[in-house]
Write a structure and sequence with these properties.
Blueprint lengths: L9 E5 L9 E7 L6 E5 L4 H10 L1 H12 L10 E6 L6 E6 L5 E2 L8 H17 L4 H4 L15 H12 L5 H8 L1 H12 L5 E3 L8 E4 L2 E4 L6 E3 L2 H11 L6 H17 L7 H15 L1 H13 L1 H20 L4
């Protein structure tokens, strides 16, 4: 890419980690230097490149790291350089490599303690950008785009055509009615305070270092209702069933984190209400993502099936489906 002409050359080594859908990730070592970095570049598979172009993945992530550059205390990797193509679908991002840290695993899922750690971390970020003018004016991050929930009517028949065998007859019937649930939730989300939303908060996008969770991969970031991140995380990454009571405990942890970091005029009742709107929105995730992810790799297919079971199961558990 021309924007990187003359940049220092690196020796690249693929990381021993699951391949991301929207990017390829390498350990990067500058020639003549022992320090190690992480380098992200665009995907090489046609399906992933098409999806990246659709959501402008590198444009979003570059925009996030520009917002975060003066906030070193927030639980994200330090980014040294980033660039996106004009269409936003490809690019390069150079960031620090975090030591020591354990990566989350989407198939295994997260314990309650790990979920709580991730929620405290994302709460700090939500609080920092809560209704902030710099975020509200940002033209590179879409507003109220919760994954691809706005395309749910288009996605349902495609999902049922490709993944119907994963569902029982009653489940398939419920899936066909999800647009009636998700559409109103989109409208309700627009009434909530606006903050920086990760958009793809899940186990594979987390590192655990000590007691802190570090948030990676901001390629689905948006401006909108922060509680969507909780719904996406809890609904899609819990290791087992999580009762409504325990989910409420996690929402209270998030709400207290917001208050501790300066948010005012946002009640615990409003946080729970927004969380339930987020759970309704998160029901779109398996429908809009599962077909493409299942085609990406054997691991992607396994994640897709778990995604369907986890999100639909959580909607049923909370009485929202």
């Amino acid at each position: 890419m021309n924007a990187w002409k003359g940049a220092q050359r690196f020796t690249l080594k693929p990381l021993h980690a699951p391949q991301g859908f929207l990017s390829r990730i390498f350990e990067a070592t500058p020639k003549g230097d022992s320090r190690r970095y992480i380098l992200k570049i665009g995907p090489d598979q046609p399906l992933a490149r098409t999806f990246s172009r659709k959501v402008r993945a590198f444009q979003r992530e570059s925009a996030v790291y520009r917002l975060l550059k003066n906030h070193a205390s927030l639980p994200v990797p330090r980014c040294f350089a980033s660039v996106a193509t004009s269409g936003g679908s490809d690019g390069l991002i150079l960031m620090e490599r975090t030591y020591p840290a354990r990566a989350g695993d989407q198939i295994q899922g997260l314990s309650f303690r790990q979920l709580a750690s991730a929620i405290r971390s994302v709460g700090k970020i939500h609080a920092r950008f809560w209704n902030q003018p710099a975020l509200l004016k940002n033209r590179f991050l879409p507003l109220h785009r919760y994954n691809l929930a706005h395309q749910i009517k288009h996605s349902v028949p495609i999902f049922l055509r490709n993944c119907r065998s994963w569902l029982s007859n009653p489940e398939a019937e419920k899936v066909s009615h999800l647009p009636r649930i998700i559409g109103p939730a989109l409208r309700q989300a627009k009434k909530s305070p606006v903050t920086l939303v990760h958009g793809d908060l899940r186990a594979d996008n987390l590192l655990f270092s000590g007691q802190q969770a570090i948030l990676l991969d901001w390629q689905m970031a948006t401006r909108g209702m922060g509680a969507f991140d909780l719904a996406r995380l809890i609904g899609g990454s819990r290791s087992g069933d999580l009762s409504a009571g325990n989910q409420h405990r996690l929402v209270i942890i998030w709400h207290r984190t917001l208050l501790r970091h300066g948010v005012r005029g946002y009640s615990a009742e409003a946080a729970w209400r927004d969380y339930l709107h987020g759970v309704r929105l998160s029901l779109s995730i398996p429908l809009t993502n599962a077909v493409q992810l299942a085609r990406f790799s054997p691991r992607g297919r396994k994640i897709s099936r778990r995604m369907v079971r986890r999100f639909l199961g959580n909607g049923l558990r909370l009485g929202l489906v």
